Amino acid sequence: MTDPARPAFHGFEQIPLHEYAERAYLDYSMYVVLDRALPFLGDGLKPVQRRIIYAMSELGLNAGAKPKKSARTVGDVIGKYHPHGDSACYEALVLMAQPFSYRYPLIEGQGNFGSPDDPKSFAAMRYTEAKLTPIAEVLLGELGQGTVEWSPNFDGTLEEPSWLPARLPHLLLNGTTGIAVGMATDIPPHNLNEVVSACVRLLDDPEASTRDLCEHIRGPDYPTAAEIITPAADLVAMYESGSGSVRARATYVKEGQNIVVTALPYQVSPSKIMEQIAQQLRAKKLPWLEDLRDESDHQNPVRLVLVPRSNRVDIDALMGHLMATTDLEKSFRVNLNVIGLDGRPQVRGLKALLGEWLQFRTDTLKRRLRHRLDKVERRLHLLEGLLIAFLNLDEVIRIIRTEDEPKPVLMARFGLSEEQAEYILETRLKQLARLEEMKIRGEQDELARERETLVATLGSSAKLKKLLKDELLADARKFGDARKSPLVARQAAQAIDETELVPSEPVTIVLSQKGWIRAAKGHDVDPAGLSYREGDGLLSFARGRSNQQAAFIDSTGRAYSTPAHTLPSARGNGEPLTGRFTLPSGAQMVATLAGEAEQRFLLVSSFGYGFTTRFENFIGRNKSGKALFNPDAGASVLPPVPVNDPASDWVVAVTSSGHLLAFPLKELPELDKGKGNKLIQIPPARLKSGEEVVSAVAVVRQGGEATLYCGARKLGLSWRDLQAYEGARASRGQLLPRGFQKVDRIEVA
Asked: What angle do CA 716, 720, 721 make, to 5 degrees?
């Protein structure tokens, strides 16, 4: 009878959706972290890589065997151990066979396994063949010696190793990358000799610091010959914390007038570099470079030829710019995040990582020695029984011939174990020859000595450490090689300023009355003769170079600037400056100017105040400009006037009432910004009422001439004439002749 207080079970469990989603996501996250993305510290492999290596060993594809189709290996892997997509499995196999991806490839491929230019251009698995490389022995050599734990495969029909008994810290040798859920790993490859040397140092001196270990492991060692330029102090800090970055730079040589790039940073494609440089050439941002060619071939995997425009090009500066703006110099993220011996992922420093691996190797060594000791003791046990049988051969034969069940009789008669009796019964008669006793005793003596050695080694940490060290050094002698990536102390590359890359060509910058800007090539352009929009006309123009900045000043005294080569062509009407700059409310552009950074200009307001300043003070990065000139309230800003020689030039200032004053320019201050000093005296009442203001100003060379334009009339003043108007700065000046007192502008010869 059903208990009414107990709910009925219908064959399924009901739980809240949020609880189910949380549980499912956590299970998935743990699977991705532990069984897909992160490597195990012991053998440095992810599960798919481990299964590929193991499956190939089971197929007999060792270094001395004939290779088999990659499809055969992939089929075994996904059919027996790794029930996932064949394309992903094959890609993992290919990666372990690419010498430009793996520092020490574990697989030797025959056929198209990709190229540095396109690592994923490998042929289909039905066309390629593969086998293990000699260094794979480091991972597999001790597999059958009781060194690993075995677990059932996905369907429980086979067993696979939970890890491989690596004799070297493969995790550091080839490195790995992976993205899990909420964490990632980026471990660079290293040089085998350096890693072994660091392991030996840590065995000899367990108190050695990470800085001490970095005397052996000086930095990553990528499969390419690109330089590692990260400072040694930064590398030590990276190894101490387990995270950081490494910067690698391409190498190049000069062949005649050409530059030849011979090595690229890890995983950088030559075609990508060519495209990045070509893009700058098309944008006319590389005036120093005339052409580039890709001459890479089988013998020279990387050979990019750059052709400078002339032999006067600074090659180091050009290459520094290219390295800063392309992948010729690249930074690699480092994150030593691995699954440790406790089965948990954690970011480890170099010392912790090597120390934990040495613990793994020590445990593996003990497992191997104990496994061998068990085999030796079992063999000695069997030989002991065999020797008893040999010494009592007639009795043994009689028992076998007369007894229906000889095994228990033998065990009782000679005190044998069941295993010894079984072995005696399975021994062939020809092994009981006269010389067999000597062989048995000789084997016993040899095994006894081996047992003593094994027991002594297992019982002594010093002997165990020495054995571990000897095996590490033996593998280093067998598989070690020289460093590929040189360590060179260099600063990170700096891009050349954009203005230095732009060709220096003469341009005329034209500003219209309604604020439209454009630039015409050459200095022989008549700005007034250009076509303008209806109701618009010329306001100001300046002659400069295309690699200079074009500067502007508005009626409030704010300055703006933009590269001259970015201005639209004068073939059209240009573009409004309001699209480039944000002017204060009610402000209008007054003038445009150009020049070198040290070029001086005279700034003057209509109230007669001004100062000189360098052109570089007009340059700013803000779209809203920068405060440069601070005129009085109600005063307007006159167009800036270029200065020739601050020490000898003269200022000529004219008021709207016809007063003209000439005085040396050096009496005015040179400021970076401000209001300046008074140039010419104007009665305050007339200034306040607006009856009189400064209408024009000019800078005249010593001994020069000036022409005053008054409507349709003009008045030429020689240097002698100008001296008649000389006076102290801020004085009233002299009145011009009748008919020439309404000066519109002043032109200087």
From this structure: 40
Distance, in Å, from the CA atom of 161 to the CA atom of 50, rounded to the nearest integer, reads 9
Closest residue by Cα to residue 537 from 502, 513, 503: 513
Cβ pair 184, 175 in contact under 8 A: no
Q: Both tokens of residue 88?
A: 């992903």
What are the helix (H) ranges across 141-179?
A: 170-174
Q: Which of 25-29, 123-127, 289-293 has the highest mean pLDDT?
A: 123-127
Q: For the segment 475-519, what is each residue's pLDDT rounded down to a tens digit?
A: 999 999 999 999 998 887 777 776 666 777 899 999 999 999 999
Residue 272, token pair as written in the block? 């990508």
Give me the count of residues in the chain: 749
CA-CA distance, 78 to 43, in Å (whole number)? 21
CA distance 610 to 576: 29
Buried b (16+ CB within 10 A) or exposed e, 590-603: bbbbbbeeebbbbb
**Both structure tokens of 721:** 């004439």
Residue 135: CATH number of its domain: 3.90.199.10
Active-site annotation holds for 127: yes
Using DSSP's 3-state secondary structure scheme, residue 277 falls into helix
CATH number of the domain residue 281 falls in: 3.30.1360.40
Q: Reduce the secondary structure of 610-637 to three states and give it as a string.
A: EEEEEHHHHCCCCCCCEECECCCCCCCE
Closest CA to 55 of 76, 79, 33: 76
In a domain, 513, yes or no: no
- C-alpha to C-alpha distances, 294 to 110, 277, 297, 524, 726, nearest whole angstrom: 26, 12, 9, 43, 70
CATH value at residue 733: 2.120.10.90
339 phi/psi in degrees, rounded to 5: -85, 120
Task: Find tokens 């109600």 and name the residue.
Answer: 634
Q: Is the CB of residue 138 less than 8 Å from the CB of residue 167?
A: yes
pTM: predicted TM-score of the whole model, two decimal places = 0.75
Closest CA to 743 of 717, 701, 713, 722: 713
Domain boundary among 165, 193, 208: 165
CA pair distance 93, 75, nearest whole angstrom = 12
SS3 call for 47: helix
Of 142, 42, 115, 615, nearest to 359 by C-alpha is 42
Asked if 307 and 382 sit in the same domain, the reply is no
> Which of the listed residues 327, 345, 371 is the one where a domain comes to its end?
327
Secondary structure class of 642 (helix, strand, coil) = strand
- Per-residue pLDDT reduced to its tens digit, 35-72: 667 899 999 999 999 999 999 999 999 999 999 999 99
Tell me the C-alpha distance between 207 and 364, whole Å.
Answer: 23
Compute, in degrees rounded to 10, the torsion defined by CA atoms 19, 21, 22, 26.
Answer: 140
Catalytic residue among 127, 222, 239, 266: 127
Range 379-390 burial, b when 16+ CB lie within 10 A, else e: ebebbebbebbb
Q: Which helix (H) or strand (E) holds 234?
A: helix 232-241
Q: Measure the CA–CA gap between 512 and 539, rounded to whole angstroms.
A: 5
- Domain count of the chain? 4
State mean pLDDT over 114-141: 94
Examine the domain organization and report whether 475 and 371 are in the same domain. yes
- DSSP labels, 440-481: HHHHHHHHHHHHHHHHHHHH-HHHHHHHHHHHHHHHHHHH--
CA quadruple 722, 728, 730, 736: dihedral positive or negative?
A: negative
